[in-house]
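Input for the complex:
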Amino acid sequence: MSDPGGNLWTHSAEEAVSAPPLNADTQADLVVIGGGYTGCAAALEAARQGAKVVLLEAETIGHGGSGRNVGLVNAGLWLPPDEIVKALGADAGGRLIDALGRGPQMVFDLIARHGIDCEGNRNGTLHLAHGPTGLEDLRNRFRQGNRHGAPLQLLDKAETARRTGTAAFHGALFDPRAGTIQPLAYCRGLARAAQDAGAALHGRSPVERIAREAEAWCVTAGGHSVRAGALLLATNAYHRSMKGIAAPQFIRVNYCQFATAPLPPSIRAQILPGGEGCWDTALVMSSVRTDRAGRLIVGGMGDSEGFGGRAHKSWARRKLASLFPDIAEAQIEHQWSGHIAMTSDHIPKILDIGPNALAVFGYSGRGISPGTVFGTAAARSLLRPETGAALPVQVQDRHIERFSVARSYYYEIGATLAHGISAATGR
Ligand SMILES: Cc1cc2nc3c(=O)[nH]c(=O)nc-3n(C[C@H](O)[C@H](O)[C@H](O)COP(=O)(O)OP(=O)(O)OC[C@H]3O[C@@H](n4cnc5c(N)ncnc54)[C@H](O)[C@@H]3O)c2cc1C
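Predicted:
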């Protein structure tokens, strides 16, 4: 069997965007650093408002988490609603829950409005109970979600088996607000829409320096500079250091995915026939979904290219076989990994990094809807500070993560051990 190729999303994206390097000095109302969902949504919103916006991306549009993720367009954070309220208080917590509850609608509206070809499928998601404790967790999330107005449905084991094509799960929480996308194509589509609205996007333009000069931001990339009244740092887990600004602090967590070759129609009719995207309640979480071509994509924590790579790869094979024995021998055609920017409280951060400048990061593995919502809101707030445009979370002066490097290793070692132990126990 040949070695698997890399990132499936790069292979199958139907959307394309051209973003040449910055090749002259320029001026703007807003300069955005980072070409993922946060940066592209901000650029789109700024351009739509008639502002002059320049976006600088170190690599290509969607190079970071936005081009590598599972593609689950969730209607909230990883945290259940009561914990968000506990962390932020009733008012601020309620506002964040509401804003993110509307997130998938915003994403799918943008997809429709701009004709983004990203395999958008609003068939909901299934949070799968990996065992009795997982089912209890889902019951709890169901009760909490209902109290906050979320139209969730708790499915029993038989209905879960019918929807997924495997009897491995004890039940599921169905969220009809959510859906799936081809993540890189969505990001490129947002970028293309921003360009159509007048934004200037530059790839292969790693920002090396940020300075404050004569009441404006001066951002340098590749020997050229952008002077702008407002600045948005949207580099998240893929932040590359630049002079003049402190790096956002987060815990880097890795997640890897494995995609089969397209499955025959008879098998596709049995596995996730409704097209829902799924993830489970296990502590070392995993995910499963299909794509438009009929591939099955299994994901789990860990870096498939790192020291635990072999454990993660053989875990993926066993996972596939245990969930869907009929395709135990299916060829894995693509494997790839990505970094997640996690915060200790799992709540995204907006930092004040200077006059009219914000840094947005830390979606903790939930960045498709949140990145779109936060990026849009950040652009509004930066361009019209006098209107006090509401941001989804309160702006902070700083955010500190202690022992972030050690904690990143802890997660990677934990995922490697869990996947290795699953080999020993045959699960
Ligand atoms: C494997 C994986 C699975 C995930 N699954 C899901 C999921 O199913 N659902 C969900 O909602 N979320 C998921 N996430 C999270 C989601 O992908 C991220 O939260 C989201 O993509 C973050 O978007 P962003 O624009 O903030 O950052 P990114 O997409 O990471 O973009 C940041 C960009 O900044 C650029 N950059 C960095 N430094 C510089 C510099 N100095 N100069 C210029 N550019 C720079 C980088 O090159 C990068 O392109 C997942 C993440 C991963 C990695």
